[in-house]
Write a structure and sequence with these properties.
It is built from 14 helices and 15 strands. The chain is of the alpha/beta class. It has two domains: 194 residues, NAD(P)-binding Rossmann-like Domain (Rossmann fold), CATH 3.40.50.720; 132 residues, N-(1-d-carboxylethyl)-l-norvaline Dehydrogenase, domain 2 (Orthogonal Bundle). Helix 8 packs across helix 13.
């Protein structure tokens, strides 16, 4: 068995590095493109935390063309949601081997774990793959520099809540989840197997509604917290009106452990933000259409409105130059 981790950024990179560092009996294979992948292949992946700074040798490939898939492989997708469809199309029809025999395609044969923010990833994956697992991730990772990832907590590196999506877990699914739980916990993560993983992802979505605000204003701007609070309040009101439930504050606190106990990483910049802010810093696109846009979509599908989240979704498409407009909007609301 092998974990093929598609996307080696803040989540996938930390997961793969820790599995390799701790000698997982089921090795990781990182899929990393461009300079990031070249540096990992040449020098290893540097992972920095509040308590350590190590370089880990991790198997890496640049694309599916460099990978021979085996029947016991497990795909772990850690891209951004806006990149997911293209990524899955790259893998779904790849042959999967059992010995010298082709056992099927990746889509019909292999499990895929969707370790993304938002609620849409599992639905996208289910268009292509028979066995889809949702993953709720609490992992304060940072990827800004090629060949390096940061994790801002220690000694744990994060928390994963994992469960089968769209079907009752089979015996094979339960065996896989038990193996994964043992491997990932031995690598320094907290893991919870939960059939109601999507309830947890609904809750996590609330915490991600401020990601675009960070990307526009910067993570240390004093307005970020208040604006995020208004966006979350609008989403909570919508959830309640639609009968959507999510785990309590106490349940989250119990499960996330130290996942939010952020500490400085020696030598790292003082100002570090979440995934959307990091994407902007790297010159990439952000996933706001699947975060605030998810709330706007949910409202529209049920004849309701979510004007604050819809407007932040629009402003995120404008980018950091929308900072003044964003502040004015919430000054009027608040």
């Amino acid at each position: 068995m092998r974990y093929v981790i598609i996307g080696a950024g803040a989540i996938g990179g930390v997961l793969g590095a820790r599995l390799a560092q701790h000698g997982s009996p089921h090795e990781p294979l990182l899929i990393a493109r461009g300079e990031h992948g070249v540096l990992i292949a040449a020098d290893g992946l540097r992972i920095r935390s509040p308590e350590s700074d190590v370089v880990v040798r991790v198997p890496v490939a640049a694309s599916p063309d460099e990978v021979r898939l085996e029947a016991d492989d497990v795909l772990v997708v850690a891209t951004k949601t806006q990149s997911l469809d293209e990524a899955l199309r790259d893998w779904v029809d790849r042959p999967v081997y059992s010995g010298d025999t082709v056992a099927g395609t990746a889509g019909s044969t292999l499990p895929v774990l969707v370790a993304l923010n938002g609620l849409e990833g599992e639905r996208i994956a289910s268009r292509y793959f028979d066995r889809v697992f949702g993953v709720c991730v609490w992992l304060p990772g940072v990827h800004l520099v090629p060949g390096e990832v940061l994790v801002r907590i220690a000694p744990s590196s994060g928390t994963f809540i994992i469960g089968r999506f769209g079907a009752v877990a089979s015996n094979a699914d339960l065996d896989l989840l038990a193996t994964l739980e043992a491997d990932w916990e031995a690598a320094g993560f907290r893991v919870f197997i939960d059939d109601e993983v999507m309830r947890w992802k609904h809750r996590k979505l609330l915490s991600n509604l401020g990601n675009a605000v960070q990307a526009i204003l910067g993570p240390s701007d004093p307005s970020v917290g208040a604006i995020h609070g208004a966006l979350e309040a609008e989403a909570v009101e919508l959830y309640h009106s639609l009968g959507i439930s999510w785990p309590s504050d106490a349940a989250e606190a119990e499960r996330r452990g130290n996942a939010f106990d952020i500490r400085p990483v020696p030598g790292a910049p003082d100002e570090l933000g979440g995934s959307s802010w990091q994407s902007v810093q790297r010159g990439g696109s952000i996933e706001t259409d699947y975060l605030n846009g998810e709330i706007a979509l949910l409202a529209r599908l049920h004849g309701r409105t979510a004007p604050l989240n819809a407007e932040v979704q629009r402003l995120a498409r404008v980018g950091p130059e929308a900072a003044g407009e964003l502040r004015r909007l919430f000054a009027e609301v608040g």
